[in-house]
Amino acid sequence: MKFESVTIKDIAKALNLSISTVSRALRGSYEISSETKKAVLEYAEKINYRPNPIALSLKERRTRAIGVVVSEIANNFFSQAINGIESIAYNRGYHVIITQSHESQERERVNVEHLAARGVDGLLVSLSSESADVSYLKELYEKGMPIVFFDRVSSEIETHTVVANNYWGSYHATEHLIYQEFKRIAHITSSPHLSITKERLDGYKDALAKHNIPLREELIKYCPHGGMKVPEVEEAINALMKAKQKPDAIFCAGDRLTMTCFGLLKRMKGKKEVGFTGFTNTAVGDLFAPALTVISQPAFEMGQTATEFLIQMIESRRPVTEFQNKVLETELIIRESSKKSVL
């Protein structure tokens, strides 16, 4: 028996529409009404229609592939963002190729060059903690490669960006610890040049200032690889806990940092003296002992929004000259770890 795949013609016949209308509806064209798009997409999903990538690439001179560059897929935030990316790309007929930098600028550059060589139609990029120089991305962008940044962004390339509200997330986390009567709040963060590091550090500083708590630079520790290298986090924690005036609370500014730091603190003496909160999108924060107080980011929605922006750039018939910086709100989830004498 010969396998017969579902085609656009089948959808057009079933809905009594022209083939061109169905094709434009599946591409999300502005020329098609929202009602028609909804009907076409719902029917396409019902009959499990999937575009033929080979036919599309030959017709449109595209590969229908999107390259994704992140630091680590196992990171709770990035795994959820990738789910968001794929949820949009898949329904729009795009294949997603995922690469990991492991916080290495060199690996990120190699990944970007490999994706470009494979002919991806565009790139979704969250910079590595080492990526102070983005010249290789600028060069590609200037040659016409659509690029959208999410989470960790660059101000050197004028394009769409999608970020969480890092400043207010950090501000609320720090202020929450202050309301719990902590006064010496340490801040463990990533590379100083990263956009998320700067924004979260500003939120931390401003929350202290509002409550007239002096900023102590010795309570701010940078881990250049964002928690992926455990010795860096150990060094930061040891420096804090061996000081004459130890912190009474610690606020971590990243997903991997939060998980690594929390695990190390659990194994240290004197741990009951330290309150704790951090940025992480783990779905099991309430299963830790004590349950984790966290700032959660809308990772899935960030991935979706970034992908929508990128596909718009890819499919635009004219050069895109107006860009958006989309900022999505974070959420403070209060649990036991931020209360006094709980760790």
TrEMBL record:
Residues 6-60 form the HTH lacI-type domain. This is LacI family DNA-binding transcriptional regulator. Pfam families: LacI (PF00356), Peripla_BP_1 (PF00532). It comes from Flaviaesturariibacter amylovorans. Transmembrane segments: none annotated. One of its GO terms (molecular function) is DNA binding. Keywords: DNA-binding, Transcription, Transcription regulation. The lineage of its organism: Bacteria, Pseudomonadati, Bacteroidota, Chitinophagia, Chitinophagales.
